[in-house]
Amino acid sequence: MADPIREAIRDRALACGFDAVGFAEAHLDAEARAGLSEFVARGYHGDMGWLAGTLTRRGDPQALWPEARTVVSAIADVVDRARVTQRHRSPRRSPRR
Which of 37, 47, 49, 63 is the most buried (most CB within 10 A)? Predict the structure, then answer.
């Protein structure tokens, strides 16, 4: 049976223009924490220095918010599809070889 609170959150987010909504337990296992550490160690976080500076807390959602039980993630495709489509059809663009 669907959780009515999750469904209400999902419905509202989709109505607000988000493309997808997901829910996860507010917990990272050891493998995920190690992956986050490696991501930062390799410099993949780019100029997001705050990510490296808060790595310990970000590896444990409960450290950020002890009351948290669930993480809600919502995504929106912000790419202007018409512009991207036009660019790919542009005759000025040289073909790939």
Answer: 37
